[in-house]
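Sequence, structure tokens reproduced for reference:
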Amino acid sequence: MRVYILFLFAMMSTRLLLLLYLTGHVFAKKSQDVDCLVVNLDYVSCKWNKTGTPEVNYTFYSKLGNDQWKICNHYLTENNVNIGCNQQVDSRDRFKTFRTRLTNGSENFEKGHELKKQVKLNPPTNLTVLNGSDFNLWFYWNHTSPAPLHCVEGEVRFRTNNNNWDFSKVSAGIQKYCINLPSSSSRYELQVRNRIDDSCGESIFWSDWSEPVVWGSNNSTYSKDLMSPWTPVIYVVGAISFILLAMLLLHHERLRIILVPVVPKPSPFLHNIEDWFQFSKGLKDNFKPDYNERACPVREYNYVSQSDVVSSDGSTCSVTTDQTNCSIEHDPEDLSAPFPSNPVSSEEVQKASV
């Protein structure tokens, strides 16, 4: 019985040790996964702390193609533990296979890397903005990578009045961007980033965004976060002040007088309607006539029937019916004088009736 118990204890101990060994081996392998990135075509940065800081310091070696292994000269550390290495490379070396090795005593971890798509450029610099003579807004920047200009493509993002970002691609070799006919009352903000173009071996990594450049009014913004907390208070105080002023004017009948002017009441001592209004002397003189017109007297004749005026020779004598006579001079001011009359004499009537 005692032998059986010892046998079971030995089996359990063996399994436990095996489990601990396998678990530690798996964890150790996870911490040595190396990732490499070509930074601005200047150097290769490799790190092996993807799953956390390793427990031991590893020695890093690297080589390109069939070259000899080179030990790291510049380690990256964290809490005095090596977590990465920067190795100088030529810009053309990214098309070669890059191999890495981590060693710690008898442990060796090797891995191959294809660097062609693992390039990250530095962000553009010297962003400037210019309001051109064509009334368009022009943005300019510079690339700082050793890559040829025709191998670098860009992307801009801009926004107006702190609204959502708009994105636009910029073709390789171009270092400017245009916003057509900007509003002078708006605020424009722009940033740029770049990467290697597909014509030179496209990279999957964009650079970081550049520092923003701003043009326009800083006060014209529709963002609620940037609105002054005193703005609603000013609106409310202005509305209340307007209402109180209107009530005060209505109470003293000032507003009614301003909106609806009172028609002046005529005085019983004024005989001319022109005296109701305050006309200037020159305007009153324009109502007075500056000319004299001769009066034209009017007279009326008695009607004589046609049968009474037939002459002895069978002819008909017509009597003039003119009722006006303007040939006689008459004083236009003396309207009370009787109009001159020229009645037909009785002898003429008798002579006409014979």
User: Anything to note?
Assistant: The two ends are 191 Å apart (CA to CA). The domain at 121-216 is CATH 2.60.40.10 (Immunoglobulin-like). The helical segments are 2-30, 231-251, 254-259, 281-285, 346-353.
